[in-house]
Amino acid sequence: MSGSPTPQKPPHRTAADGLVDYNVVNSLKLRNRQIACSPAGSDVRIVEFAQAFIKELDKRGMPFFAHCYLRGKAAQEAALKAGHSNAGFGRSPHNVGMAVDIVHFGRFWELTRDEWAVLGLIGKEVARKRCIKVTWGGDFRSIWDPAHWELANWRTVDFIPWPKPSKEWRQIVKYAKQSD
Ligand SMILES: [Zn+2]
């Protein structure tokens, strides 16, 4: 029909489409990267959230992985230096196992604002469905940190440790290491 405007894709849709790469999502190298960072020492809720979030991203063809859960003193100081954190040791939820950084496989933190906004929407939906209260670093007023997710009110919630890795998890790790 003449005269009717071409429908414009909303910016978030374009950004979401740009993140899709099923070849990478189905690759063993991504799978290996996804299991390289152990959630050991973290709260069970942040682990459940992160794993469900990454699974949801996988389903949508978006290659992401947990770059960091728990951060000890040395790692916290390194993160501070690298600009991945603005907190000294003891002041970050990563130091007590209540946070996770989820980054793109290949581009890491180098996503556009619109692309990170897509991540924010998907992550919040995953958390809502599982009734896990999280705060997204993309909503921080102090320092914008869109890779970062933490348990809401982490300073006052009781720590529930992630149980020992299940048999299934250990098998996945073993399989990935063998096929490296
Ligand atoms: Zn973080």
Give me the secondary-structure topology.
Layout: H1 11-18, H2 22-25, H3 28-36, H4 44-59, E1 64-68, H5 73-82, E2 99-104, H6 113-129, E3 134-136, E4 148-151, H7 167-178
Bound molecules: zinc ion (ZN).
Zinc ion (ZN) binds next to strand 2.
Would you write up a description of this structure?
This protein is α+β, with helices and mostly antiparallel strands and 180 residues long. It contains seven helices and four strands; from the N terminus they run H-H-H-H-E-H-E-H-E-E-H. The protein has helices at 11-18, 22-25, 28-36, 44-59, 73-82, 113-129, 167-178, and strands at residues 64-68, 99-104, 134-136, 148-151. It has a four-stranded antiparallel β-sheet with strand order 1-2-4-3. The model has no long low-confidence stretch (mean pLDDT 90). Bound molecules: zinc ion. Zinc ion is lined by residues 94, 99, 101, 148.
Provide mean pLDDT, rounded: 90
**CATH class membership of the domain at 43-158:** Alpha Beta
Total helical segments: 7
- Write the CATH fold name of the domain at 43-158: Muramoyl-pentapeptide Carboxypeptidase, domain 2
Global morphology: globular
Structural class: alpha+beta
- Main beta-sheet annotation: 4 strands, antiparallel
Strand order of the largest sheet: 1-2-4-3
Low-confidence stretches: none
Which ions, cofactors or small ligands are bound in this entry? zinc ion
What keywords describe this structure?
180 residues; Muramoyl-pentapeptide Carboxypeptidase, domain 2; 4 strands; binds zinc ion
Short synopsis of the structure:
This protein has 180 residues and is an alpha+beta fold. The chain is built from seven helices and four strands, in the order H-H-H-H-E-H-E-H-E-E-H.
